[in-house]
Amino acid sequence: MCRTYTLAFVKTGMLDTDGRVDYQNGMDVVCPVIDKQRAVDEIALVDLKSGEVTYGIKSLFKILANACPVFGPLFSFRPFAWLMSKVYAFISYNRRVIIPAPESSDGYVYQPSFKLHYRLAYLLLTWFCTGYILTAYTHFLAGVIPLGGAYREYLICGGQMIFQGIIIIAFAREKLWAYLGNMMTISFAGSLLLLVPVVLSNWIKFSLIFYPEYFMATAGLMFLEHIRRTKLLELGWILTFTWVLYRVLLLGLIVIVD
After folding, report:
1. CA–CA separation, 74 vs 252, rounded Å?
2. d(CA 104, CA 195)
3. How far apart are CA 183 and CA 164, in angstroms?
4. Over the chain (258 residues), what is each successive 10-residue block's mean pLDDT?
5. Is the pTM of this model over 0.85?
6. Could you give the CA distance from residue 126 to residue 160 in angstroms, rounded to a whole number?
C-alpha cells in the first residue's frame, strides 16, 4: 500500500524520482535520527536540507500542501487533522490484513506494530458493511434461498468470526487476529462485488438466474482468496475447510427451518 501511493507521488511529480526508500533498507543513510519503528507504522518524510522528519498523516499533508497550497488551511485545521490521523492509523495498523505480506517478510528487523483496538474496529466495520450489503443482496435470491429476518446476515457473518476464532485458537492462537482480519477482508471484498449488481439493478434488469450465478461466482473467488491468504499465513487447509463447513451447515439450517 505504501509503495502504491508513494509511486503515485513520484509519477505526479510530488516527489523526486529518488524520493522514496523502503523502510527496511537505507533508513540510516537517509536520516540517522529517524525513529525506525515509527517509520514502519507511519510513513516518514525527511527534509534532506533541514533534517526535519515528519510521520504519518503529517507527511502526506506536507506533500499534498506543497503540490496544492489551496488545501494548506484545511490540513492545518486541527479537528480535520485529528480525524484524518485516526483514519490513517486505522489503515496503517490494518494494512497487513488488507493487503497481506508473506510470512517470509517477517525476517525484517522492524515490523508494523499491532494495536488491538484498531483491529477490533476493523473487524466491526467490515462485519457491519458485509452484513448490510448481504442483507440487500438476499432480496435478489428469493426463491433460491429463503428470505430471513433483518439481522440474519449480520448474525451469520458475526457467527463465522466466532466459529473460525475458536478453531484457530485451538492450534495457532498467535495468528488469531491476523487470520480474522484477513478473513473479514475477504468477506468485505466479496460483499463489494455483490454490491455492483445491487446498484446496477436500479438501471439494468438482470434475469432472475443471474443473481444466484453471480453469488456463486463471487463465493468461488472468495474461496480461492481464502486459500491464498491462509497459505501466506502458513495456516494450512484446516481453516479453509471449516470456513466452507460453516457456510454449508448454515445454508442447510436455513433451508430446514424455512
Report:
1. 53
2. 35
3. 9
4. 77 77 65 79 85 90 90 94 96 94 64 93 98 94 81 94 97 96 98 97 92 96 97 95 94 77
5. yes
6. 13
